[in-house]
Specification:
This protein is mostly beta strands. It contains two helices and 18 strands. The chain has two domains: 152 residues, Sandwich (Jelly Rolls); 95 residues, Immunoglobulin-like. Helices cover 3% and strands 36% of the residues.
């Protein structure tokens, strides 16, 4: 199977610890200096969209015109999630600099063939990572292990059109390419890339951190109207040979697009 190397980021925007979720207030606002969720196609504001920042255990909703406030502290890279009925779940990575300016986020309506596989935040690895690692200290939860697997049924899929697995946001990758792009601070060590499998077949290696990374799924691997399986395996520290040192990563929002 030919390997696909992801080397580009795709953003659709203009521009802690576990505990009780902090609910942000919803206030009616109509200002060019406010954060806003809009329909990507029409540009109209989207009301009652759910905004979540898992790391901060914070959530709020947009007002009827799509405006919202982020009444929480953002330090370092954080993933922000947007959910709204009839729209594709959306995530992106922001930091304190981005949060200090108005965010205008365009989200897309979902198609009948689109499938949201998982909208939750997942931490893979062994809970051992350096402060030099990409986004170190920014992980939300304890690791669930070195891999993630999810089963789902693909209905109404059109195999005559391209089918993609989209990873909404992923952080913590410490590959050589990520190091060369300044995404971590390791002087001379690096990890192998996370691997993505579809129905037991390797379809991609993810080299860098980022948002909206698309992986094309070979049609021959897809089982229409049957159970399919996606697996994501984290990489390993290639400079550590005395024991297996898994790279700690977090990702959120897996979608099948057709």
């Amino acid at each position: 199977m030919k390997k696909i190397f992801i080397t580009m980021l795709s953003l659709t925007i203009t521009l802690s610890s576990l505990g009780a979720t902090i609910e942000g207030k919803v206030s009616e606002r109509n200002s060019l200096n406010s954060n806003r969720i809009i329909d990507k196609e029409t540009g109209n504001g989207i009301g009652n969209a759910k905004i979540t920042l898992p790391k901060q255990n914070y959530q709020t909703k947009t007002d009827r015109e799509g405006f919202f406030e982020l009444d929480t502290s953002i330090t370092g890279p954080s993933i922000i999630s947007v959910q709204k009925d009839k729209y594709k779940p959306f995530t992106m990575t922001i930091d304190e600099k981005a949060a200090s300016k108005p965010l205008v986020v365009g989200i897309e309506k979902s198609n009948a063939t689109d499938i949201s596989i998982d909208i939750n935040m997942h931490h893979l690895g062994d809970n051992t990572y350096s402060e030099l690692s990409a986004n170190a200290g920014k992980f939300l939860s304890e690791s669930s292990g070195p891999f993630f697997t999810k089963n789902f049924v693909l209905r109404n899929i059109n195999l005559s059109k391209p089918v993609y697995l989209v990873i909404g946001s992923i952080m913590g990758i410490d590959t050589l390419m990520a190091r060369s792009m300044g995404q971590n601070k390791f002087p001379n060590s690096y990890a192998s890339p996370p691997e993505v499998y579809f129905n037991g077949n390797k379809i991609a290696e993810i080299q860098i951190n980022g948002d909206g990374q698309k992986i094309k799924i070979p049609p021959s691997l897809i089982k229409k109207n049957q159970q399919n399986e996606v697996t994501i395996k984290t990489g390993r520290n290639l400079m550590q040979t005395s024991y297996v040192d898994y790279d700690d990563i977090e990702f959120m929002n897996l979608i099948i697009e057709n």
